[in-house]
């Protein structure tokens, strides 16, 4: 594994602002645009400037476009950070391809909603996993709640919707327990 080292910016300072040839790197860095237009951006800019010319509007230069894109990225980052830090980021998003990890059905119905683990992102029906009431806020599956990644006793696959055996020390996928006829568990 290659380890890269970069000197933190707070260590690169100069206390002498009156010196001949002095350049304030902090001010210079703050004024530098961090977004660089790629070929797709330049092609789009040429198309839009052609349309602006036809409409008699002022053309958009590359520097302005870079600064606008940098501001868009900054605002997007701020909003994403805020959403992840608050409950806004916990809302369930609808995806047509989502299926229950146990029964493999994409359908949900009243009082049998599909619930997502906020750590490992598995999706299960309430009835399939034995969730009596969907909790407000975040929900963690049993393995994530305990902070473990156990091995299934019935198959080699790790992860997925699992429940402990009667001993409480061994784990099985709920789907393995349901679909393997030799397994009998009244709590599933």
From TrEMBL:
Gene Ontology MF, one: zinc ion binding
InterPro entries the UniProt entry points to: EPHD (IPR034732), Histone_Mod_Regulator (IPR050701), Zinc_finger_PHD-type_CS (IPR019786), Znf_FYVE_PHD (IPR011011), Znf_PHD (IPR001965), Znf_PHD-finger (IPR019787), Znf_RING/FYVE/PHD (IPR013083)
Gene3D superfamilies linked to this entry: Zinc/RING finger domain, C3HC4 (zinc finger) (3.30.40.10)
GO biological process, alphabetically ordered: regulation of transcription by RNA polymerase II
Keywords: Cytoplasm, Cytoskeleton, Metal-binding, Nucleus, Repeat, Transcription, Transcription regulation, Zinc, Zinc-finger
Transmembrane segment boundaries: none
Gene Ontology cellular component list: histone acetyltransferase complex; nucleus
PHD-type domain sequence ranges: 97-147, 149-188
Pfam family, one: zf-HC5HC2H_2
Compartment(s) of residence: Cytoplasm, Cytoskeleton, Cilium basal body; Nucleus
PROSITE patterns linked: EPHD, ZF_PHD_1, ZF_PHD_2
Keyword Secreted on entry: no
Zinc-finger is among the record's keywords: yes
Family designation: Belongs to the JADE family.
PANTHER family: PHD FINGER PROTEINS, PROTEIN JADE-1
Protein name: Protein Jade-1
């Amino acid at each position: 594994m290659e380890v890269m080292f970069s000197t933190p910016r707070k260590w690169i300072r100069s206390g002498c602002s009156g010196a001949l040839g002095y350049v304030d790197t902090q001010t210079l860095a703050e004024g530098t645009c961090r977004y660089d237009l790629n070929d797709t951006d330049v092609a789009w800019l040429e198309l839009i400037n052609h349309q602006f010319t036809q409409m008699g509007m002022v053309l958009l230069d590359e520097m302005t476009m870079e600064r606008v894109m940098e501001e868009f990225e900054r605002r997007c980052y701020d909003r994403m950070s805020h959403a992840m830090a608050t409950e806004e980021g916990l809302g369930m998003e609808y995806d047509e391809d989502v299926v229950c990890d146990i029964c493999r059905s994409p359908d949900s119905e009243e009082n049998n909603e599909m619930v997502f683990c906020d750590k490992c992102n598995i999706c299960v029906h309430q009835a399939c996993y034995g969730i009596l009431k969907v909790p407000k806020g975040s929900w963690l599956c049993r393995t994530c709640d305990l902070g473990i990644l156990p091995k299934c006793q019935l198959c080699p696959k790790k992860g997925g919707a699992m429940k402990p055996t009667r001993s409480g020390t061994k784990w099985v996928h709920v789907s393995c327990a349901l679909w393997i006829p030799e397994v009998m568990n009244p709590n599933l």
